[in-house]
Amino acid sequence: MIGGKPDMETARILVVDDDKTIAGAIEKLLVMEGYEVIKAYNGMEALDALVSNDVQLIILDIMMPKLDGLSTMMKVRDGKNIPIILLSAKSEDSDKILGLSMGADDYVTKPFNPQELVARVKSQLRRYLHLGAKDSANGTSKIVVGGLYMDVEKAEFMVDGEPVKLTAKEFKILEFLMKNAGRVFSAEQIYEKVWQEPAYSVENTVMVHIRRIREKIEINPKEPKYLKVVWGIGYKIEKV
Amino acid sequence: MVTRLRKFNRSKGLKATAFLLAVVFITAIVLHVVYIYYRNYDLEPLFEEEYTKSKEFLNDELTPIIDEMHDYLATSIKPDKEFHYYYFFTDEVNTYNNISLDELQKLKYKYEVLIQPWLYKEFKTVQDKSKEYTLYLAFPDDYIQKRQAVWNDIRSELIPITVSFLQSVIAALICLGYLIVVAGRKAEDDKVHLSPYTDRIYSDIQAGGILFTLFIWFYIYGNTLMDNNYQNSNLTADQTISMIAIGIITAIAASICVMFLLSLVRKLKAGKLIKHTLIFAILSGISNFVRSFFNDSRFEHYPLTKSLNRRQVIFTVSSGFMVFIFFISMFINPFFGLFAIFLEGLIIYWYFNENKKTFEEINLGFQESYKEMMKSEKMKVDLITNVSHDLKTPLTSIISYVELLSKEDLPETARDYVKILAEKSERLKNIVSDLFELAKSTSGNLPLNLENLDLKKLIEQTLADMEDDIKKTNLRIKTNLTENPVYIYSDGKKLYRVFQNIIGNALKYSLSGTRVFIDMEIANNYVNVTVKNTASYDMDFTAEEILQRFNRGDKSRSTEGSGLGLSIAESFTQACGGTFKVEIDGDQFKVKMGFPISR
User: Fold this and answer.
1) Shortest alpha-carbon distance between residue B454 and chain A (Å)
2) What is the distance between the alpha carbons of residues B585 and B575, in angstroms, rounded to a whole number?
């Protein structure tokens, strides 16, 4: 990162979408939240805008003429690690996984909920502007998965730098799942680990806890980014 | 003529009667013959009224007498017997007689025989052997009259037998003629009908059957017929029994022969006499077999395969011919054998080379069609994606600007309008999203992430996930799940959508205070899940209608959701390898799903 980090409230955001009305709507939504917005209508324009402007976040449409979103993202990723939120009408899991694996920080499908988009922008900016040091934190008691940060000793938990209050059981469940990020655990395994009791008919108990945790840590609990249900198998924290 | 023939009565009853009569009359003909044989009848009285004019009289009466007299005159030894006839012979010197010539001349039955002595080596009674003499013979009137009476008796017996014999012959011919005319015809129409039983036997087998039956009949007949050389006024008991036996076998043989004959006639009428022979069947079977080698009509639309087939036939036939030439030439000239081997080599070279080319062409064709298929598949996916994109882009603008609008300082009424716009655009978003999931699923383009998962757990998770929605209603969910995990190979996320939709529907459309049942049972390597609820409204639709896209369970009440929930559930279930069925029974709404259990 070159230069000082601007304040989160005055961050500059590049919005790239070939549909001018959508770009305009996003601009107004973000300006209302106090951000500064630059618009571009295709990938080439976006790359040009990045040369002359210091930008802290990019909202990038995938299907665009001249240079599409994914190619633009790859060019940006060559030199910068600013957060990129991909915007696309493609809603398939495979599209999301492709976008995220190519370097996107988040993936929002069109038509999006404006408030959710704003929330995701905020969360990305928080992480990018305030959590730089914590991202690279290493210590036995600290666990980081994507925007999730947990300090087991201090019993601290933050999502994108924002502290979140968890109950003891919720904390233990998250601790167990985050330590084993990417692995799937059944309700019984989680129960026995967290409750320290033999599990019997615990699916509902565990699922209810999972749901509550999701509501606390996910921007859209219906489309969770971190805490996922693997239907018919178990639960996991996505390794981001 | 033909039309007149058709006017004959063709009823089944009449036909059967005619058949029976034909058999009876044929039997009668045979029995007449046997009877005449057993009675040892001389048939001559039938044709000759006068005994003295009959051959029998000439042969049995006159000729022996002439011979006797010849011997007497030649040897001059008088037979030692009493003569039952009169004779007179003189050579002008000696006279041999038992009656005077005058008296003899007065008799009615008299004969003159010319004697030519020079024809004989010895003829003692005459002096001059070179002259001709006359022998006078005569029968007493009463002798001939007695004979004539016997003759008349036989005649009177023979004539009625003959008449009835001829009647039988005519009757049999009439019956057979009628049967032949009406054979294959039915009272209802003018078509030729073949019998489903006898006519199935091949014609040549039937003809052979007739000959065989006749042969057997003849054999038995010959063995049953007894020798009979004595004349009786009545039949003996043995003869009567043998006649009954002959009658029975004749009736049987006649039945079989007439039956086969009529069958042959029917086939002749239908024009199938020759075609329906065993020989024809065998020959045509062989010809079909041979022709099938050369027949390539099957490959009509596949010129490459056709040429392969033709080449194969040519190769096989010419190679076979070469082997034949080779063996033949071994006996004549070994040089020709070498020539055959050389030619065979050429044929093999040609065969493999040309086939290789054809195979290459076929491969190219395969590649082309595979490419075409991939292209059209890709076009289908692209179409869905593009239409989806084109609908979602303006919708994104609408939703975003409605949001912006709601943040403006608006009068109260405008605020209400914006609220409605927000709701409706949200609904439109859901419909578009559901629609494209359904389109992808029904077009077979739904990407699946298949893994072994526990269906029981999935249902429990879905219920726990929907707990808030369930609590909002005053419905109770009654589950009856299996005790142990049930593993199926499926896509968990899609199945979650399925159960979410079905349970969501149940929550939306159930009568307040009732229970929603979720049952799970295992049967024949299948796990069946039934979701049952009591509808809160009159279900005036069929199970098929409810599954049709956009067909809403309750058209009047609901304004939320896309109305595609059940269709998506059905389509996803099927895409995941399960079965999906809706049953409506009164107020009971049932969704039945089945999934194969994985091992």
Assistant:
1) 5
2) 27
At B41-63, the pLDDT tens digits run 888 888 888 888 888 888 888 89
Q: Which of A93, A94, A232 sits opposite B458 (nearest CB)?
A: A232
The helix/strand/coil state of B236 is: coil
Domain limits, chain B: 52-150, 194-277, 296-445, 447-596
Amino acid B337: pLDDT: 80
Q: Return the structure tokens found at B179.
A: 């049967």
ipTM for this prediction: 0.83
Q: What pTM did the predictor assign? A: 0.56
* Mean of the per-residue pLDDT values of chain B: 86
Work out the minimum CA distance from A207 to partner chain B, whole angstroms.
6
Strands of the sheet containing B133-139, edge to edge, are B95-97, B86-90, B133-139, B109-115
CB proximity B407 to A under 8 Å: yes
Q: Which residue has 């693997």 as its token pair?
A: A230
Picking from B254, B169, B263, the residue whose alpha carbon sits closest to that of residue B217 is B254
Per-residue pLDDT tens for A129-171? 775 544 454 566 788 888 888 988 888 898 888 889 999 999 9
Given a cut of 70, the residues of chain A with pLDDT beneath it are: 1-9, 131-140
Are the beta carbons of B366 and B421 closer than 8 angstroms? Answer: no
Beta-carbon neighbour count of residue B269 at 10 Å? 18
Strands annotated E in chain A: 12-16, 36-40, 57-61, 84-88, 106-109, 142-145, 148-151, 156-159, 162-163, 227-230, 234-237
Residue whose C-alpha is closest to residue B553's, from B598, B506, B512 = B506
pLDDT category of residue B1 using cuts at 50, 70 and 90? very low
The CATH number assigned to the domain with range B447-596 reads 3.30.565.10
Q: Name the residue among B422, B420, B559 with its Cα closest to residue A113.
A: B422
Min distance A81 CA to chain B CA atoms (Å): 28
Q: What is the layout of strands, in order, in the sheet containing A36-40? A: A36-40, A12-16, A57-61, A84-88, A106-109
Instruction: Tally helices (H) and strands (E) across chain B.
Output: 18, 11
Domains recognised in chain A with CATH numbers: 8-130 (3.40.50.2300), 137-237 (1.10.10.10)
Determine the Cα–Cα distance for residues B408 and B423; give it in Å rounded to an integer.
17
Beta bridge partners of B589: B533, B584
- Cross-chain residue pair B393–A19, CB shorter than 8 Å: yes
CA distance A217 to A20: 33
Contacts of A160 (CB under 8 A, 6+ apart): A122, A123, A124, A126, A127, A131, A147
How many residue pairs bridge chain A and chain B with CB atoms within 8 Å of each other?
105
Residues of B in contact with A93 (CB under 8 A): 447, 449, 493
